[in-house]
Design a protein that fits this description.
The protein has two domains: 189 residues, HUPs (Rossmann fold); 108 residues, GMP Synthetase, Chain A, domain 3, CATH 3.30.300.10. The chain has 325 residues and is α/β, with parallel strands linked by helices. A five-stranded parallel sheet has the order 3-2-1-4-5, sandwiched between helices. Strands 6, 7, 8 and 9 form a four-stranded mixed sheet that branches. The protein is globular and about 70 Å long. Bound molecules: xanthosine-5'-monophosphate. Keywords: ATP-binding, Glutamine amidotransferase, GMP biosynthesis, Ligase, Nucleotide-binding, Purine biosynthesis. It catalyses: XMP + L-glutamine + ATP + H2O = GMP + L-glutamate + AMP + diphosphate + 2 H(+). This is GMP synthase [glutamine-hydrolyzing].
């Protein structure tokens, strides 16, 4: 168990020693691990670090804005913000198979990241937010597995032709230690204690073909759900966001009939998913208060034109997975 100020001082020292005057690039996803790695490496080497943030058009509402505010504005980190939404949507057009969608998103991500990092000609290091459980997990998968780029960081398969050495300053830390480190480095508590978000993003939460129109509707519905979870406490004064391990909205590309005022509507359906779990291998659906569910449903239907029905997913894992695809 580390004393954080001491840990930071030691880690900073060791990063400086390792990279010297070299330049480092890091794929910033907005997730906890890459964010904490960025903050730590920036503390150590400042402007020698450049982060690349790839927006594939399948991120949560205002995610890009949030990342730029937190890192570029507040911390003064160099961040290249790549808007690749059109490229991703183009490649996803007409594709409905979940695994095919994942593959395309992963492949395009690598493509974009490679193009951007090739522009940083002096970079010698690729930094990653690999944490101890990732090291253990990949140890069983071949002798160099721990040194390959972890797939759920979305840079899976980043070709070795990039010719960069790996810098992984969180390799010895467990998730809870990474979070403490993040807070000690000045990252907001709410950011560091966020639910996990999958690399393929809304791509696996829009069933079937991914379209920008669907992603835009889903983003707004999801933001309402998360906002209500953050604003609603149980009788122990804990928010429902903190009481759940992961919560999100899912877009169902089916239309159902509704009434609005004195008119008939025929619009899409959103499913809400909220689970409680220790390890994400098994999970229970969260028993959210009915009032909370009712409020979320009303708000989504009133505020997001194009959605006229909201349902709640009451499936455990197994047999259902947490994501719908
Ligand atoms: P499932 O749906 O398999 O999800 O029960 C378990 C956990 O893994 C996350 N997940 C992913 N994360 N890339 C990721 O980075 C993926 O392709 C992916 N699929 C699922 C999911 O959000 C949950 O936390």
């Amino acid at each position: 168990d580390w004393n954080m100020p001491d840990y930071i001082a030691e880690a900073v020292e060791s990063i400086r020693k390792q990279v010297g005057s070299d330049e480092v690039i890091l794929g910033l996803s907005g997730g906890v691990d890459s964010s904490v790695a960025a903050a730590l490496i920036h503390r150590a080497i400042g402007d020698q670090l450049t982060c690349v943030f790839v927006d594939h058009g399948l991120l949560r509402l205002d995610e890009g804005k949030m990342v730029m505010e937190m890192f570029a504005q507040n911390l003064g980190v160099k961040v290249i913000h790549v808007d690749a939404a059109a490229q991703f949507m183009g490649h996803l057009a007409g594709v409905t198979d979940p695994e095919a969608k994942r593959k395309i998103i992963g492949r395009e991500f690598v493509e974009v990241f490679q193009v951007e990092s090739a522009k940083l000609k002096n970079a010698k290091w690729l930094a990653q937010g690999t944490i101890y459980p990732d090291v253990i997990e990949s140890a069983g998968k071949g002798k160099n597995a721990a040194h390959t780029i972890k797939s759920h960081h979305n840079v899976g398969g980043l070709p070795e032709t990039l010719n960069l050495q790996l810098l992984e300053p969180l390799r010895e830390l467990f998730k809870d230690e990474v979070r403490k480190l993040g807070v000690a480095l000045g990252l907001p508590h709410a950011m560091v204690y966020r639910h996990p978000f999958p690399g393929p993003g809304l791509g696996v939460r829009i069933l079937g073909e991914v379209k920008k129109e669907f992603a835009d509707l889903l983003r707004r519905a999801d933001a309402i759900f998360i906002e209500e979870l953050r604003n609603t406490k149980d009788d122990q004064d804990e928010t429902w966001y903190d009481k759940t391990s992961q919560a999100f909205a899912v877009f169902l590309p089916v239309k159902s009939v509704g009434v609005m005022g004195d008119g008939r509507t025929y619009e899409y359906v959103v499913a809400l998913r909220a689970v409680q779990t220790q390890d994400f291998m098994t999970a229970h659906w969260a028993h959210l208060p009915h009032e909370l569910l009712g409020r979320v449903s009303n708000r989504i239907i009133n505020e997001v034109r194009g959605i006229n029905r909201v349902v709640y997913d009451i499936s455990g894992k197994p047999p259902a997975t947490i994501e719908w695809e």
